[in-house]
Amino acid sequence: MDVVIIGATGLIGSALIFKLYRQHEITAVGRDVRVVRQQFPFCKSLALQDLGLEDLAACDVVINLAGENIGQGRWREARRAKIINSRISVTQQVVTLCRKLGQEAPRVFNASAIGVYGLQETTASISPQLTEESPLPSPPTDFLSEVAIDWENVLKLLDPEKVLQLRFAVVLASNGGALPKLALPFYFGCGGKIASGQQMVSWVALKDVVAAIVFLLERPLLWGAFNIVAPECVHQYQFAAVLADVLKRPNLMWTPGFLLQLVYGQMAKELILKGQYVVPKRLLDVGFQFQYGDLARALQDIYSE
Question: What SUPFAM superfamilies does its record include (predicted)?
Answer without folding.
Answer: NAD(P)-binding Rossmann-fold domains
